[in-house]
Design goal:
The complex is a heterodimer of chains A (283) and B (292). Chain A is mainly α and 283 residues long. Chain A is 70% helix and 0% strand. Chain A has one domain: MetI-like fold (Orthogonal Bundle). Chain B is an alpha/beta fold and 292 residues long. Classes of the chains: A mainly alpha (283), B alpha/beta (292).
């Protein structure tokens, strides 16, 4: 009979809501950047350099979080920086996910030579120090947003591949997979219709984690000036600039850093929250 | 009575070490009959069931022999032909009801998928059939259960669903791989009764893999006793329980606990018997190597 497990309500999950709320805020800011920003992100005015945020003395109305040494509004640049962060998070995250998942599924399900080749490739790949690898790739590809995305995908597909392979291997041992094979379904159909839905919760958790990582990598590359052009507002670029004037104007560094921290944390928490909520086995 | 499934001289070995795991196994399952396959764990009894259904683990390879289903050799058939034969004529009742249903899919499609995609039934007919067969295994409110996920059901319920699913397409042969082992003792008896009832009603041949001689006595017509991948005795259930022929079978029977004699200590299979069977197998292997 029904054993009542289905009737137990799961607690709403504060982390899902809190992280979701922050991510929604970042997305809205990125989408409506021109409408919600108080200033022009590129406008410089040396007379307005290093203005403090609104609660400190000598602040200027309209520049809520202060300005940097060139007089550019910190809040506005953060809002525009969210665009770059999100574009990188989405495109690099999804592309990494697709490539890593496909290879992981094949390796874990078909085993044999495919598994051996993919496995060795992952081993070799993971032996490279990732940041140096990224810098090397950018040096070859040239700077720019698409290069950043490609670099992240090329470096990080292994993370998906490893985890998805292990989970696929695990699921392949289950009796339901044998039953599907006995019923006469092809291997491809078994993989896609039976195994993939059970690996999906792991993939979703990894995808959000990967988006957070992509945001960090983009920030690192901006920090060393290898991302989009120096003028364009990015969180990493702002942190790099803020670093030089940290004793005179800490806010130039602190706010984008906080935004970066919260976003990366939220991506990871959001993924875990989704997994808790939708994984039928954990449920 | 002609044999629906016939296995002739089936030998299999591990790919990496070359160790033989099945040693010239021959057995027959006549149409509508229940054939038991007993042995200790590791004797290769599940391996035979899986070889028939074409789901052997990757590490095992078949080196010789024939598996004839309605007279057609599955091992020589093309993969697509084999898949069709197995998919339309046979079904599996797996061992562990907890992993045998896909946890992320609803019950209904897990039963009807095969009817629709492999046997080409209309969706509505398949759904009606699933509800009918679920009712037959005493699942209350079948339409509602078909919309549930496996984790919402108990182990006994899930095993009933797996039995229903196996019988849904009216296969000619069902391989039951220790179907009661993972269950509670109280549920075991009901499930066994259910399988035997369904088998009789549908006239399905059953290859029943188990380590439990008590279960064999209740459900099987004849049985094969396996030791280290070799059939040491093949006989009918009456003859076996009256007078087992092979010393290993006799020892196995003597080792079975009886509730008529509750205080008695359990008899292990004597060392001498095991040595004798091992010697028999070694001789067998030697002659196999000479020919192979």
């Amino acid at each position: 009979m029904l054993d009542g497990r289905g009737a137990v309500k799961r607690r709403a999950g504060a982390r899902l809501w809190l992280s979701g709320l922050w991510l929604a805020l970042v997305v809205l800011a990125a989408v409506f950047a021109p409408l919600v920003s108080p200033q022009d992100p590129l406008a410089q005015d040396l007379m307005l350099g290093r203005l403090p945020p609104f609660w400190m003395p000598d602040h200027e109305p309209g520049f809520w979080l202060g300005t940097d040494s060139l007089g550019r509004d910190v809040l506005t640049r953060m809002i525009y920086g969210a665009r770059v962060a999100l574009v990188v998070a989405l495109s690099a995250g999804v592309a990494t996910c697709l490539i890593g998942t496909a290879l992981g599924l094949v390796a874990g399900f078909y085993r044999g030579w495919a598994d051996r080749i993919i496995g060795r490739l992952v081993d070799i790949w993971m032996a490279f120090p990732p940041v140096l690898f990224a810098i090397l790739l950018i040096a070859v590809l040239g700077t720019g947003l698409s290069s950043v995305v490609i670099a992240i995908v090329v470096i990080d597909w292994t993370r998906f591949c490893r985890v998805v392979r292990a989970e696929t291997l695990n699921q392949s041992q289950m009796d339901y997979v044998h039953s599907a094979r006995v019923a006469g379904f092809t291997r491809l159909r078994t993989l896609v219709a039976e195994i993939l839905p059970n690996v999906l919760p792991v993939i979703v958790a990894l995808l959000t984690l990967e988006m957070g990582i992509a945001v960090i990598v983009e920030a690192i590359l901006s920090f060393v000036n290898l991302s989009v052009s120096t003028d364009a507002p990015t969180w990493g670029g702002m942190i790099a600039e803020g670093r030089t004037s940290i004793y005179q104007a800490w806010w130039v560094l602190a706010f984008p850093l906080a935004a970066l921290f919260l976003t990366v944390l939220s991506f990871a928490q959001f993924g875990e929250g989704l997994r808790d909520r939708f994984d039928p086995v954990l449920r | 009575m002609s044999a629906f499934l016939e296995i002739r001289n089936l030998s299999a070995r591990l790919r990496d070490t070359g160790e033989r795991v099945l040693r010239s196994v021959s057995l027959e399952v006549p149409v509508g009959a229940v054939q038991g396959l007993v042995g200790e764990s590791g004797a290769g009894k599940s391996m035979i069931g899986r070889a028939v259904l074409g789901v052997l683990p990757k590490a095992v390879e078949i080196v010789e022999g024939e598996i004839l289903l309605e007279g057609r050799d599955l091992l020589k058939a093309k993969p697509s032909e084999r898949r069709r034969l197995i998919g339309t004529r046979t079904a599996l009742i797996p061992q562990d009801p907890l992993t045998a249903l896909n946890p992320s899919r609803r019950i209904g499609p897990q039963i009807t998928d095969r009817l629709v995609d492999i046997l080409g039934w209309e969706k509505a007919r398949a759904t009606a059939r699933a509800a009918e067969i679920l009712a037959e295994v005493d699942i209350p409110q079948p339409e509602r259960v078909m919309r549930l996920y496996p984790h919402e059901l108990s182990g006994g319920m899930r095993q009933r669903i797996l039995i229903a699913s196996a019988f849904a397409a009216e296969p000619k042969l069902i391989v039951a791989d220790e179907p009661t082992t993972a269950l509670d003792v109280t549920v075991q008896k009901q499930i066994l009764h259910l399988i035997s009832q369904m088998q009789a009603r549908h006239g399905t041949a059953l290859l029943f893999v188990t380590h439990d001689l008590g279960v064999v006595a209740k459900i099987c017509d004849s049985l094969s006793v396996l030791y280290a991948g070799k059939v040491v005795e093949e006989t009918t259930v009456q003859k076996f329980f009256a007078a087992p022929q092979h010393p290993y079978s006799a020892a196995l029977l003597a080792a079975t606990p009886r509730h008529t004699d509750a205080g008695a200590s359990l008899e292990p299979v004597p060392r001498a018997v095991l040595d004798a069977v091992s010697a028999e197998i070694a001789a067998d292997d030697a002659s196999w190597r000479r020919h192979g």
